[in-house]
Specification:
With 167 residues, the protein is α/β, with parallel strands linked by helices. It is built from five helices and ten strands, in the order ααβααβαββββββββ. Strands 1-2-10-9-8-5-6 form a seven-stranded mixed sheet. Strand 9 and strand 10 form a beta hairpin. It is globular. The structure holds glutamine. The site of glutamine (GLN) has 13 residues, from helix 5.
Amino acid sequence: HCQVIEKLGEIPILVKTVQDLKKCDALIMPGGESTAVRKLSNQQAMTEELKKFGKNKPIMGTCAGLILLSKKIENSDEPTLELIDITVKRNAYGRQVHSFTQQGKLVGLNGLSEFEMVFIRAPIITEVGRNVEKLGFIGEQVVMVENENILGLTFHPELTSDPRIHQ
Ligand code: GLN
């Protein structure tokens, strides 16, 4: 993500503490392991700060980041930031070896356009609230959503060379 941001002429800041977060105009919550990120965020007393940030500044969450932004995780009581009204199912395509790349479709970037999507032990979005816009698809499946300042993707746009989503 940092490399894409730099290519786009902006300055990336790695956020590991609340002080780092306070320097940012916008935030990317990257992929990884959502339980680990939640624990670290709690340890750093950052969870409430992330919620506040997401009330008025842009956040893009990819994969584990999207899981943390969601309203609910299926079959789980693990808390989330509840910044976008969707339900997700973790690891929904199977294990790490079932990761894949597929050509998907995006709405809103000059009409409907193709985008190469990398899914790494990705979640599936199983419910989408009324105010949430569906912006990306593989087949019928929704893989990118937006509500006001919150953008969420189940895939990794930073791993392909197309910078349009970051843009
Ligand atoms: N499987 C991870 C999770 O459920 C997400 C994987 C990813 O971010 N690429 O947290």
